[in-house]
Structures are given as C-alpha cells and as structure tokens.
Amino acid sequence: MKDLAIKYLERLVLQHQTKDELINKIMELQERDKELVDLYSNLYKSKRESDKSHQEDIKGYKKRIEELVKQLAKSEVVSEEYKRVADLKLGNTYNINATWIDKIVFILKAAGRPLRSSEIVEILLKNDIMFRTLTGDHQKGLSAHLTKALKYGRIVGVKQKGQNGYLFSLPD
Question: How confident is the model over 39-65, as pLDDT tens digits?
Fold first, then answer.
C-alpha cells in the first residue's frame, strides 16, 4: 500500500513540474545511468581480464604439475636403480654375474629352508641363462660348485637315510 502511494505521489509531482524541470530530471537520470553503465562495463572488463589471468595461471599450474610428475617419475626410476644396486651389494637380489657359490648361497638364503641339489638345479634353470648353457647335464655341472661351497664352509650338506644325495643348507 505504501509503495502504491509513493508511485502515485511521484506521478503527481512529475505532472506539476515544468518542461525544463522534467528535461533536467531526465538529464540527471541519464547521467546517473551513464555512470552506472560505465561502472558496470569497467567491472565486467576487469572480471574478464582477471578470468584470463586465472586461466593463464591455471595453465601455468598444469604445466608445473606435469613437470613435477615427470620429475617424480625420473626420481623413482633413479631410486629403484639405487635400491637394486644396494640389494645386489647386500646380497638381497639374485645377481647373474655373481660366482656360482654366491648364487647357490643366495638361493638357499632366499628359500629359507634346506634344498636338495635337484631343487637348486630347477631354480637355476628358471633364473640363470648361463646355467642353461653351461653343460648338457645340469646336475653334474652344479655338483662341482656344490663341492667347492661345502669345502669353503659356505653351505652344509646333510646326508639323509634312504635318499640319494645331500640336503644343502646354510651354516648356523
């Protein structure tokens, strides 16, 4: 009700004003509208510029993330290589270039239980290309190295009753 009364009074006031007063009033309103439009357009331009700036920032961040991911992948490869070298030096990884005695000791350590020579031969056939090409009879080829390892005290051979051959294990 109050709004209706204000609108009615505004119309009544406008009807009693002269033509010059109305023109001045229109000029004031146009000037005010022009200032508001300018303010709005400036705000809109700054918004678009900030959007462009944010888009450029996002692109920069994406590029940086990609670079960091690549750098992380490279560092993981290097880290894996260092771990592999350390494991080889510590004897935690099968080394194809190790001596035959070291290979036998590694297999017994990795198995965690005593093994027969036939089991050692199976493991070497699966993991060592050199062993496959060493001799035609793999059991005889391994026998000399097992004898050396026994002689040097690197492994222990225990004869079991009722079975041919020895059960090889690491010394305590």
Answer: 888 888 888 888 888 888 899 999 999
The residues that bridge with 155 in the sheet, in sequence order, are none
pLDDT tens figures, 97-139? 778 888 888 888 888 889 988 888 888 888 787 877 877 788 8
Q: What does the pLDDT look like over 66-83, one tens digit per residue? A: 999 999 999 898 888 777
Residue from 124, 97, 125 nearest 110 by CA: 124
Say which CATH topology domain 100-169 has.
Arc Repressor Mutant, subunit A (1.10.10)
Tokens of 100: 């035959």
Q: What are phi and psi of 161, to 5 degrees?
A: -65, 140
Angle at 94 between CA 88 and CA 99, to 5 degrees: 85
